What we know:
Number of strands of chain A: 11
CATH topology of chain A: Thiol Ester Dehydrase, Chain A
Largest sheet of chain A: 11 strands, antiparallel
CATH superfamily of chain A: Hotdog Thioesterase
Radius of gyration of chain A: 20 Å
Helix content of chain A: 10-25%
Oligomer: homotrimer
Amino acid sequence: MSKTNPGNFFEDFYVGQKIKHATPRTISTGDVALYTSLYGSRFAVQSGDSFAEAVGYKQSPVDDLLVFHIVFGKTVADISLNAVANLGYADCRFLKPVYPGDSLTASSEIIGVKQNSNGKTGVVYVRSSGRNQRGEVVLEYVRWVMVRKADLAAPAPETVVPDLPQIVAVNDLGSACPHINNECWDTQLAGSPCMWGDYRPGETIDHVDGMTVENAEHMMATRLYQNTAKVHFNQLEQKHSRFGQRLIYGGHVISLARALSFNGLANGFHIAAINGGSHLAPLFAGDTVYAWSKVLDSCDLPGRSDVGALRIRTNAAKNANCLQLPEKPDENLILELDYWVIFPK
Amino acid sequence: MSKTNPGNFFEDFYVGQKIKHATPRTISTGDVALYTSLYGSRFAVQSGDSFAEAVGYKQSPVDDLLVFHIVFGKTVADISLNAVANLGYADCRFLKPVYPGDSLTASSEIIGVKQNSNGKTGVVYVRSSGRNQRGEVVLEYVRWVMVRKADLAAPAPETVVPDLPQIVAVNDLGSACPHINNECWDTQLAGSPCMWGDYRPGETIDHVDGMTVENAEHMMATRLYQNTAKVHFNQLEQKHSRFGQRLIYGGHVISLARALSFNGLANGFHIAAINGGSHLAPLFAGDTVYAWSKVLDSCDLPGRSDVGALRIRTNAAKNANCLQLPEKPDENLILELDYWVIFPK
Amino acid sequence: MSKTNPGNFFEDFYVGQKIKHATPRTISTGDVALYTSLYGSRFAVQSGDSFAEAVGYKQSPVDDLLVFHIVFGKTVADISLNAVANLGYADCRFLKPVYPGDSLTASSEIIGVKQNSNGKTGVVYVRSSGRNQRGEVVLEYVRWVMVRKADLAAPAPETVVPDLPQIVAVNDLGSACPHINNECWDTQLAGSPCMWGDYRPGETIDHVDGMTVENAEHMMATRLYQNTAKVHFNQLEQKHSRFGQRLIYGGHVISLARALSFNGLANGFHIAAINGGSHLAPLFAGDTVYAWSKVLDSCDLPGRSDVGALRIRTNAAKNANCLQLPEKPDENLILELDYWVIFPK
């Protein structure tokens, strides 16, 4: 029996396969403090228990993206240790609030496989879930990754490409958001007077600020998530790679963009769902990240008069701010994220 | 309605103006652990619950300077986003102990304005307060900053320069310090046999050690405080600045100097007040910080036989230790801080 | 009275001397989160309260090595501030689990002294203990360090070299490990199907992954442990040293090797004892650390049917993985650690 984990290769995956991931993880206020120190996030609900309690949470919930990264991190050793690239996300829904003290576990089901024509790699579609200590699903998402084959002679499996929603339906939003007591929502403490009704589809917002990233920071973040993808940590190997250096975990970029988006979306306190996302280019230590957003849609939530949802597309770029970029993606663009954010009405 | 915060410019401030700052912030043991990892502070009261409880606290209080940085950080988006320089501090008093779990908010009042003769900038005097979840003021301080005008044609306001105390009066010290049970003060655990009575005005103490600072560290610290001043984070912009690099938040230097001062002031467990402070030169990543102190005064506290106060002036320098420096400020000096420290008797 | 601590020199130590160290330290979930972010450790018992509770702990205990580093850190100011080298460890036993919220103090007894023939240095043998807030010893270990003399004319003391065990006896293991409920040990959550009985003496395991270390990381770690050894922090001084740069705390290497060893020893949830250890060469920022292990022995624990012990030797190297190294130490080898690890049966 091999004692070390070589990770799964493309030919090891099959549709219907279920995987329970190591390692269970209790999220603490220590993780929350580190998350703040890594990104500087300022959303009032996640930052102050007093604010969160006033508006309807039992205390400050853990940042949605911290939950995402911790669940994602658990899947790496089984799903993407031999991945060439993380191709995309879909149907990501945040289903229950997570509080400090909650213990998360993760599991996945393979829902699609498609060998590439080169015969050396294939795409694996995976639906992953994070559960709390009561077995409640707190997060569910699909991602697809390109994974290497170990045995090039292994036969190609029957192609199965799952039918994934382009957009998470409005009916599927809001379950992680308690009833919000709008009278107690203090817009000065929250950092902006702009509520749900103040945003219009088509509107764009430049989040203004830039943030330079260091190697120590992204490695501390990625280890905090117990994500073991080798490309983030090993300079000795990476110096012989195409890029010559460590790659920054794509989720680090998502969290930076979200933290920067406070300046323009301060009352957007909860990510209810991620419709889709792409990492368009790699980020390296020393690069400076900027972000801007476009409001794609604005919806009421069924049965909710307290909050509404905005569909937002946030882009991040490196080493160039919004004003320096044309509309179309170019080499500076590193992220496109399409998601639903909950605002108070 | 603009969705992003451009910050206030000099002409936006007026005497009597009151500002409630975003973002409420619950301080946790996670913040405390990060603070230890960033500065290596070793004061027994703040480090060990067992010690703190023995001497009279309900548990280890949060380091005074961590409270200061968190309150200060909140004021930046409204007060100093367009600041040229942070000119000074006065009348800073720590009024209640802060414990992990407390939620802090900050508010400010403009108490003075003075346009500079160049017509492009002005000095704004601000009194800021931090309050806990019960509305109790835990910290109050005045700072004055030089802020740019956006509209150079805006008329100069009537000059108001507040009358600020050179020194916080002894009567105003000690309210954040519970009655200390001196019999339970274990000087071996605290790290030094020197109590209040062992220090004499005029005495100087070289704190010996030096600490080199990295970019990842000061950015993690400054984000932990949710301080958004751009000069600390954006290398892309800063490389075109006068210094060519990111500036380290001045409060980072204060915390480094305080942590270094343990070697010489180990029983000085509580900063009761800051009389004044100046950042004499900027600090950059790669620089090494040293500190030394002079005892300026020694006072009983009215009605207190358990503790006394020392007025201390701590200087920090970069890339040169105390012995290499003349008495007068030179290019290596980066900080002068005049403050009251409480010692057990 | 000197206000600053010059540290002890060789001639200041005598056999039988007892030292109570500053600073008491409460360990929190914040420390645990930082530890995870610094090393990426994934052992299920220490990571998830739900897992720990299921198998028999009251909650996730603090990582054994975090306890070690915090106790070790306290001894530095009194024992090794003037040390030339940390020569070795022996008889290190973890005696009680430590949980977040526990407050640790440390004390030491000098058990041997031996002046070197050059008359400038000597070896000091020290037994150190860490105690929790109830006075229970949670950790005990011996280390010996080479310490400079301040007064070269001081007479050599009578040589006393303590008789130290090569190996901690099996009877002395297991007191920090509660009865483990093996039926609740979920090997998928724990990350490996390999239990105690699956390992054979003589077996070697390459832990595969490499981890590059940055200055910000090791300084944050070492300050978290309140370890004040100057060589880790002061680049201005170190640039004139033999190595020209800051040395990384040896314990940082131990924790990195332990975290890497998860890939191969995932069910080895508890270090019961360290038989011996040597730092064979220094590690510097920018270096990449690899680790591999050899099973030296496999033992039942007296009276325990739930768990067994493996004696493991873990080596760490810099900038070369296991396959690139010969059996014998060479310049890339940085650590040899001989220890007992507890596995479920």
